[in-house]
Amino acid sequence: MADTPRQDSPDIEDSHRAPARIRHQVRVTPVLNDPELDEYLACRLYSKCENLQRAGAFTFRGAS
Question: What does the pLDDT look like over 34-50, one tens digit per residue?
């Protein structure tokens, strides 16, 4: 049995086109940082606030 990609499977080009296709459906969400927490943990920690999407969940962007 040959390993051929399924016709309905996304490929890399689909991934490159996705941001333009969903840009009107998703919000640009902030990346937050807390310097005090960074100092306490001795590293830089960033949080991407996907919970601020219209659906209130990080899965909205992926599902779109």
Answer: 999 999 999 999 998 88
Q: How does pLDDT run across 51-62, given as a tens digit for each residue?
A: 888 776 656 666
In this prediction the pTM is: 0.52
Contacts of 4 (CB under 8 A, 6+ apart): none
CB atoms within 10 A of CB 26: 15
Helical (H) or strand (E) element with 14: helix 12-22
The one-character DSSP state at 6 is: -
- Determine the Cα–Cα distance for residues 63 and 13; give it in Å rounded to an integer: 17
Cβ contacts of residue 22 below 8 Å, gap of 6+?
61, 64
Angle at 20 between CA 15 and CA 21, to 5 degrees: 80
